[in-house]
Every structure is written in structure tokens, then in C-alpha cells.
Design brief:
- With about 850 residues, the protein is of the alpha+beta class.
- About 15% of the residues lie in helices and about 30% in strands.
- It contains eleven helices and 51 strands.
- The strands form eleven sheets. It has a seven-stranded parallel beta sheet. It has a six-stranded mixed beta sheet with strand order 4-1-2-3-12-9, with helices on one face.
- Strand 1 and strand 2 form a beta hairpin.
- Helix 3 runs parallel beside helix 4, helix 5 crosses helix 6 and helix 8 packs parallel to helix 9.
- It is globular.
- The chain starts with a strand and ends with a strand.
């Protein structure tokens, strides 16, 4: 690694794409790993001092340092055209990555505050203490050159990767706020078996603990007289168990880095894991909560860190190996998504911590649309396993809305239905009717069949930071429409998903306020007394992180009245976004009243007529903590047809078999059993057979679904490892590449299955594999003359279309077309070439 030291500034070239620039603090530079840059020491090897000149040339870029060297003010980076691509500004750490269509030439990470962590991590046995340095000038420039994929690859390389989750985590979950007993918890597991619905994970919410002892870690023996016995029962049935924890700081005042807090948390979390607990759910809690040692990093992020590190240390001790151990997983809140309301990722550390959920959300179709939008946004900032309370934490979705939730959940990073304990129906499908059970089972089975595709993309996320379920812009970076869509996404490069949902609320633009917003502020939460401040705004979307909205207004415990008039050229639905409560009047009619305390939430108000002015009055109060008040809208879809954009290529609706040319928008209706789910022609997809859980599922028999297209190719790979441990980080995994294309010269389709690269140990390490190539007889392939496997003619079977089949099934017949089936017995260490002669 090359470096320059000029006066009190050090420049280090971590690679040709990563530049570290640091101002001395208290006479020294920092060579230690930090909380935000956890692998710095890996770069600081074989340091080579190089001479400094006025201009440092870095490929096509030029870096300028200030001559005085007293601060980083004056640091500038120019491109070859002489345009400034970065000029130093003093900032704190932030983890919100730019939208795909706004990727800069250079993206900068600020290691401020700079937090030095013990080598041993979060444990009472650490040989050093945490050290927090505020107001440091320490930056990392990522030269991504407007390449959104490269930016994310550099980002996770520098700031830390999200570890690959266990395969079981990608299976089905059951979750609800409910006071189970040992027997009712066992019965739920048996009910999944009774209804033949796959299940890998089960959540026991806060009632596992003895509440009479506060929020401690004593087990509620009235409900679970023998917790180990229950955990053993679950494991015997292949089910992993998660406990919810709302952690309170020691003595309600110790911050997370104080020794007594570290010792208390480590001891108690690991004690329950010793009983067999598989996963901790770290719930940030809105009342008493963990305490951050710095105002510049949210407590939620430190909670993710400590729960993850304590879990990691437990499994390291259990395995006796600090490198290969059971994958440490936790679930925590997305920082900062508040009850589904996306407010931007606050730091460059939180993305490292596996499963993250979006908070206590509502259950309406509009809440579902918000979750799709949030998943895409959070995934773009490398939050790989973002997930919703599928079905909604609060509320009572009707049958169709619940099914639409489960369709989305089955095709999202983590399928975890959840709700609170005061709903009419919990989120198990049998609480509706038999049709709901059958439809939901079909979609969960679909997810299990797609696990080879999902797991491969989870590994790719670990390596590159690219989302598992991702914006269309990743595959179509030159398509302006694909880059900005927030209601459809892709799995890999072949499957397009556009869940049926409601309206995505957006802030009302300035142009739709036909008069300024008049704001009047009051002391207290009751809009009483003399006003303490007035203001006018051009739009209403206020988000306050423990700050005052206006001069003379207190940070907490204030109220305000907002008055304005809005007008639209098309029909819309109005929403209010608030933290805490609000009452809203539209044209003099009260349309919403909420007197409760809560974090930021969206509330639907009323549908308003187009081309008419509408008077809006909002009475708002803030009672502590963060604050938010905004007037939002959503465009109404009056004909109820789903609008779907298809990018370049040919796309098949897997429920009908109809094929559409891409680069166009289509409008379709879907019955309750189907959804907008498309496959790109040319695709070759590995599918597993469904199983009750991932312990039972085997990948020694796979179906490769082939959708032939003369104008499109495909390539990919099957990723395999032991599914449970961190051995993959040491290269103990297997990649089996494949590709498919049309050979014009020989007038045939060619499928190549390459011999595996790498190996791993475990019961999943199959040496021989039986595959069935299922070739769909569509547009470019209506019939087959013969099939060659490694040059030898091979028999094949033709199967008629099966109108009762479900998409991507593991049977012979499919819903969309006739198929031919080609069976091939494979040695994974050999190459196979399959030629389909038409």
C-alpha cells in the first residue's frame, strides 16, 4: 500500500479505487480498526512511502491537498475534464447510498465519530476499552466512476459485508405477539405439519420472560416450565426458535460500552442460547432503551452490533474455532426506518447485521405498497435481509389483502408473517378459509422451490453488496424507467416481480400547494394559550431528530396547526405522516383523529376530486423523542388494473404463458390466486423440490427450467455450502456454473453445465446429481427433433400443458406450455453439454 504524509495530513491508497485521507488528531494517525471501518488493518500492510507534489495523479483523477495541512478543508478531487468531483466538507458518518441513477464519480465515507473497538469485540474479556473520538477529519473516497454496482462492491469491501444467513433463515417463519404456553407453542408447530405448510423458524415474542421481574432474562416458568424441553421439541421438528428482547440498560443509565452493561448483556443473552435458543430478536423499544455513548450514532445500530457480536462469540466458544462456527444471526430494526416509514440509512455499519425488519406497520394495501418501496430503498443501501411484518403488525386485513401480503412475503428476502395480539385473526392462513390455506401454501412452496436461486443471490450479496431482491436498474442501468421504479423488482436476472398492493404515499410537491402552508406553534400538546411562533412553508414534510422546528419552539412537547390548500389535476388519496398524533380536516370535515403516542406512521385520509382546491387543516402534537409531520398523496388507480413495466427482452407471464415484448408498460388484472410474476425468455433456472423445511430439502435432485429464446442468452451458477456455518468465508463452498444460448450456425439450443469449482463438507455435499431439464415449448422452440448429451443422443419425454400446475413447480407438466423433459445423471466434477436440436 502506498501512502503520503504531508504536514499533518496522511493519504493512503488502499487500492486503485479506495483513497483514505486523515488529519492528525492529538499528534497521531489512527491505524486501528474502527467501528465504521472494521477491516482497516488488512490494508495497512507493506506500507510504501511516496513523495508528494502539488498534485497527486490517481489514474484519470487529480487529488489536491491544502498546503497548510491544518485541516482537510481544501482537499479536492478533480476528474480528467477538470470538474470537481469532491470537495471536503465536515460531516458525520451516514450510510444512505445514492439512488442507482444518481451514482457519483466519487462517494465519500466519513469515519466520524471514530470509534476504536477492542480486538476481541463486545465481551467482558476484552483487553482494551472502547474509545470514541468526536469531530475527527477522517474520510474514505470510493472511486466508483458512476457505476452503481461498483459503488456497492467497494462499500461492503471497506465497511464490512453482511454475512450470509443460514439457509433455514430463507425458509418460512411464524411470528406474532402472543403469550404461548409450552403446549400451545408445540401445537403451532404440529399445525404447520397438519396443514402441510413449510416452516423453518418460529418466534416466541416477549412473553417468554417472567414479566414480574421487569425486562430481565428470567424465563416465565408459568408458561414454559421447561424451556429446554420445548426448544429440544422444536429442533426435533426442524424448527429454529427466536426470542424477542426489549433490552433495558443496567440501572437505566449505563451506555452500551460501559463494562457493567457489556458483562450483563453478554451473560444473559448467552445463558439462554446455552438452552438451545437459535436467534435473538433485538427490538429497539420506544420507551426505555439501550443508550448510545455518542449522540452521532443511534442506539439501534449499537444494539445490532452488540447482539450480533455476543451471538458470534457464543458460537465461536461452542465450536472451539474462531473461524468456523455456526452463523451468528440476529433480527433488529432497519436504521432508520420507523414503522415502515423510510427516513434514510443513518450509518455505514448497520448493513452488516443480517435480518432487519421495518417496525410496527399497518395491514392495509397501502401499507403493503410502502413495504415494497422500503425494501427496494433499504436494499439499495445494502440492507440485504430487510423484511416486513407480513400481513401487518396492526389491523385486520381481509382475505384478499392477506393473500397479497403473503405473495409479496414469499418473494422477498425474509418471509415472516407477524401481528400484535389484539387483531381479529392471527396471520396463519387457516384462520381464514381452506382456499386461503391452499393459495398461501402454493406460494410458500414456490419460495422453497426457488431457494437455489435465492441462496445464490444471497451469496452474491455477501460478495458484492448487490441486493437479493433488487431494483430493475441493477440489470438495466441504461433504462431510465427501470432505474426509478419503486413497486416492482427482480430476483436475479431472470424473474420480475410486481406485487399487487395499494398506493405508495409520496410527499405532496410544492406545485400542488396553491397557497403557502401557514404554521402556528404552541407550548404543550393541546394547541392552547398564545402562539409561540409562526412560519410559512412551501411544502409539508417535517422530520425532526430531537431538534426544534422553529426558533422559540421547544424540542419536545409542542403542538402546531398547519393550514393550506391543495389541488391536483388527477384523482388522489391524501395521507398524513405523523409522530406523534394528529387531527386532520379536509374542506371543513374531520377525516382523521389520532390522540396516541407513536413513532412515524402513515395514515390514509380521504380521496379528493381533481381540478378543485381543497382546504386542509392539520392539528398536530409532539410529546417527546423524534417528531414528524407531513402531508402526502397517492395516485388512485381507478380501473384497478396493475401497471407493469417490462424492460428490454421478452417476458412471459408465468400464470398465463402469454409473452410480451419488453421496453413497454402493460396493464393487467389478476385473480386472487395469481400475481404479476414474469420470467425472461432465455432463462435457465435451477429449482429444488418442496419440503417441509430446509433440513429435509435436498439438492441432489433439481429441475432446470429452460425458456428458450433465439435472441437471448443466460448464465448463472448454483451455489452450495454446508448451509449453517461460516466455513464459506474461508472458501469452503462449491460453485457449479451453467449457461444457455442459441447456436445459429448449428440451429440448436446449447446448455452447458460446468464441473464444480470448490468443495465443502457436510450432508449437503452431493457428489452426484439427478437433474431434469424442462424445456418449455414456446415461441422459438415449438418442437424438438433430438437431444444430445455430451454428443450422445438421449431420450426425452414430451408432456402436455397442465392447467392445474403452479408456476415454477417441481412436477412434470407446467401451466404455461407443453414441455420436453430431459433427464441427466451428473457427476458434479464433470462437464456436461446438452444440445436441443430443433
Amino acid at each position: 500500500m502506498k501512502q503520503i504524509i504531508y504536514n499533518k495530513i496522511r493519504v493512503q491508497f488502499f487500492s486503485e479505487d479506495i483513497i483514505h485521507i486523515e488529519q492528525q488528531k492529538k499528534g497521531s494517525f489512527c491505524d486501528q480498526n474502527t467501528f465504521f471501518i472494521p477491516s482497516k488493518e488488512n490494508y495497512l500492510k507493506d506500507v510504501e512511502e511516496i513523495s508528494y507534489s502539488d498534485k497527486i495523479n490517481i489514474g484519470e483523477y487529480t487529488l489536491i491537498l491544502p498546503h497548510e495541512g491544518k485541516s482537510l478543508a481544501g482537499v479536492k478531487l478533480f476528474n480528467k475534464e477538470g470538474k470537481t468531483v469532491y470537495s471536503y466538507k465536515k460531516r458525520i458518518n451516514n450510510g444512505e447510498l445514492p439512488a442507482l441513477n444518481k451514482t457519483p464519480e466519487a462517494f465519500v465515507i466519513y469515519d466520524n465519530p471514530r470509534i476504536i473497538v477492542p480486538i476481541e469485540g463486545y465481551t467482558k474479556d476484552a483487553t482494551s476499552k472502547y474509545k470514541i473520538e468526536e469531530n475527527v477529519q477522517d474520510i474514505y473516497i470510493l472511486l466508483c466512476r458512476k457505476d452503481s454496482k461498483k459503488l456497492r462492491k467497494l462499500y461492503v469491501e471497506l465497511t464490512g459485508r453482511c454475512e450470509l444467513v443460514r439457509l433455514s433463515t430463507l425458509g418460512s417463519w411464524n411470528s406474532k405477539y402472543y403469550a404461548y404456553t409450552e403446549e400451545t407453542a408445540k401445537q403451532l408447530i404440529l399445525d404447520y405439519e397438519k396443514y402441510n405448510i413449510p416452516l423453518d423458524n418460529m418466534v416466541i415474542d416477549t412473553d417468554w420472560r417472567a414479566c414480574e421481574n421487569g425486562w430481565g432474562y428470567d424465563i416465565n416458568t408459568k408458561l414454559f416450565p421447561d424451556m429446554k424441553r420445548f426448544l429440544d421439541f422444536a429442533h426435533e421438528h426442524g424448527i429454529k426458535i427466536m426470542f424477542n428482547d426489549h433490552p433495558e440498560p443496567v440501572n437505566n443509565k449505563a451506555h452500551v460500552f460501559e463494562p457493567k452493561e457489556i458483562e450483563y448483556r453478554e451473560k444473559n443473552l448467552q445463558n439462554l442460547m446455552n438452552l438451545g435458543l437459535d436467534i435473538w430478536w433485538y427490538d429497539r423499544n420506544w420507551g426505555t432503551h439501550l443508550i448510545s455513548p455518542t449522540k452521532n450514532v443511534y442506539w439501534e445500530t449499537f444494539g445490532l452490533y452488540l447482539f450480533s457480536d455476543i451471538t458470534k462469540h457464543f458460537y465461536q466458544k461452542k465450536s472451539g474455532n474462531k473461524e468456523i462456527y455456526y452463523r451468528p444471526e440476529i433480527m433488529g430494526n432497519v436504521v432508520n426506518v420507523v414503522n415502515g416509514c423510510y427516513q434514510g440509512i443513518q450509518d455505514t455499519a448497520s448493513h452488516r447485521y443480517s435480518i432487519q425488519w421495518t417496525g410496527d406497520i399497518a395491514s392495509e394495501a397501502d401499507a403493503l405498497s410502502q413495504e415494497i418501496d422500503t425494501m427496494i430503498k433499504a436494499s439499495n443501501s445494502c440492507i440485504a435481509y430487510v423484511n416486513a411484518d407480513c400481513g401487518g403488525h396492526m389491523g385486520n386485513p381481509n382475505k384478499e389483502t392477506f393473500i397479497r401480503w403473503m405473495q409479496f412475503g414469499s418473494l422477498s428476502p425474509v418471509l415472516r408473517p407477524h401481528c400484535t395480539n389484539v387483531v381479529k385473526r392471527f396471520r396463519e392462513p387457516w384462520n381464514y378459509d381452506q382456499e386461503t390455506v391452499d393459495i398461501v401454501r402454493d406460494y410458500i412452496n414456490l419460495r422453497y422451490r426457488l431457494l437455489p436461486v435465492i441462496y445464490k443471490n444471497a451469496f452474491n450479496n455477501y460478495m458484492t453488496g448487490e441486493p437479493i431482491f433488487k431494483s430493475l436498474g441493477y440489470e438495466y442501468p441504461n433504462d431510465k424507467k427501470a432505474l426509478i421504479l419503486n413497486d416492482e423488482y427482480m430476483l436475479g436476472n431472470d424473474i420480475l416481480i410486481a406485487p399487487i398492493a395499494g398506493i405508495v404515499p409520496q410527499p405532496i410537491p410544492k406545485k400542488n400547494f396553491i397557497e403557502p402552508i401557514k404554521a402556528t406553534y404552541y407550548n404543550g400538546t393541546e394547541l392552547q394559550g398564545e402562539p409561540i411562533a409562526t412560519a410559512e412553508y412551501k411544502e409539508l414534510n417535517i422530520i425532526l431528530n430531537h431538534t426544534s422546528p422553529e426558533k422559540n419552539v421547544p424540542v419536545y412537547n409542542f403542538s402546531a396547526r398547519f393550514e393550506t390548500t391543495v389541488q391536483f389535476d388527477y384523482p388522489v388519496e391524501l395521507f398524513v405522516r405523523s409522530d406523534d398524533g394528529s387531527t386532520v380536516y379536509v374542506d371543513g370535515v374531520k377525516v382523521h383523529e389520532d390522540k396516541t403516542l407513536h413513532s412515524t406512521m402513515n395514515f390514509p385520509l380521504i380521496r379528493i376530486k381533481d381540478k378543485e382546491p381543497h382546504k386542509v387543516v392539520i392539528e398536530y402534537f409532539q410529546a417527546g423523542g423524534e417528531a414528524a409531520i407531513g402531508l402526502y398523496y397517492g395516485v388512485i388507480n381507478e380501473d384497478e388494473k396493475k401497471k407493469i413495466y417490462l424492460p428490454e427482452g421478452k417476458w412471459m407471464n408465468v400464470f398465463t404463458g402469454k409473452i410480451y415484448e419488453g421496453r413497454r408498460t402493460i396493464f393487467l388484472k389478476f385473480d386472487i390466486k395469481s400475481m404479476p410474476l414474469f420470467v425472461r425468455l432465455g432463462a435457465l433456472l435451477p429449482l429444488a423440490k418442496e419440503a417441509h423445511n430446509t433440513e429435509e430439502q435436498k439438492w441432489d435432485t433439481l429441475i432446470f427450467d429452460f425458456y428458450p429464446c433465439k435472441s437471448a442468452n443466460d448464465s448463472g451458477y448454483l451455489y452450495e455450502d454446508d448451509t449453517k456455518t461460516t466455513a464459506y468465508k474461508l472458501g469452503h463452498y462449491r460453485i457449479s456454473a451453467y449457461d444457455a444460448y442459441f447456436d445459429k450456425a448449428l440451429d440448436r439450443f446449447v446448455l452447458n453445465f460446468k464441473k464444480a469449482k470448490g468443495e465443502f463438507e457436510g450432508e449437503k455435499a452431493y457428489k452426484n446429481r439427478e437433474i431434469v431439464i424442462r424445456c418449455h415449448l414456446i415461441d422459438d422452440l415449438k418442437d424438438v427433433q433430438k437431444v444430445l448429451v455430451n454428443g450422445k443422443e438421449t431420450a426425452f419425454e414430451k408432456v402436455k400443458k397442465d392447467r392445474k400446475a403452479f408456476p415454477f413447480n417441481a412436477d412434470k407438466g407446467v401451466l404455461d406450455s407443453d414441455v420436453i423433459l430431459i433427464s441427466v445423471s451428473m457427476d458434479v466434477n464433470e462437464d456436461y453439454k446438452v444440445e436441443i436440436i430443433i
